[in-house]
Amino acid sequence: MSASWWDEGGFWYGLHTLFDPVRVPFFRTVLESHHSRDSRPRVLDVGSGGGFVATGVADIADVVVIDLSFDPLRDAKATGLSMIVAADASQLPFRDDSYESVICSEVLEHVADPVAVVAEAARVVKPQGLFLFSTPTRTFWSRLLLINVAQRWRLTRVLPSDLHDWNEFLTTSELTVLLSNAGFSTQKICGIGIKALRLPSAAVALVMLKTRLIGYGEAGRRIELAITESSTLVMIGYAVLSGLPMAKP
Question: DSSP readout, 168-217?
Fold first, then answer.
């Protein structure tokens, strides 16, 4: 791994070229359709890393980025993002109703307490505010492809072996309930995947990455993900803060 998130040849930059051409337009569309075009919503990017998503929406929103680690925040600041805070997503240092929207992309699968993270998002977002998310889905196929093929099997692995723990993934129904319990009403969940016609070129890109003929950034570009109806591997969507959290049994 490169120390910098924005190093073209580094592992982290591969996340940018792989996911951002899909997730950033999705998030932008939701933000622009939900918020008035005459105002700039205040958006909190939770677990922003080096600021990939934040830089993608910074022209339409006032984005505050948080991460638990100082190193990625330093890289985010180098991009020109100025509102940066080192903080725990499960204990946000912000007042109630501080934001119009919260983005939580590729984060829930890495936190110790996703219930607390979503509850904190509900606390700091204003009524009728948005919670935008993307996260791997816990399915047979995600275990096979994202864990075994991509992380564990020696002949095929291209990701760090400890990057993901399949048991920490959520199912779509689990996430919907988690959001509902925090007071959010889920509006849409779809998937991120590879178009069938792109499968051969994606396979070639992974072979070239494995043999070090190309780096992570170029591999991400060649794989070319898309929004899909199926959330078999990764789900992406949004919810609206609709009211009070459900009472606990």
Answer: G-B-HHHHHHHHHHTTEEEEEEEEEEE-GGGHHHHHHHHHHHHTTSS-HH
Q: Cβ distance 171 to 139 under 8 Å?
A: yes
CB 223 within 8 A of CB 212: no
Q: Which residues pair with 104 in a beta bridge?
A: 133
Nearest to 5 by CA among 59, 75, 57, 66: 75
> How do the domains of the chain map onto residue ranges?
11-142+166-195+228-241
Whole-prediction pTM: 0.93
Check residue 3 and give its pLDDT: 67
- DSSP β-ladder status, 62-67 and 42-46: parallel
Instruction: Please write the tens of the pLDDT for every residue from 72-105.
Output: 999 999 999 999 999 999 999 999 999 999 999 9
CATH topology of domain 11-142+166-195+228-241: Rossmann fold (3.40.50)
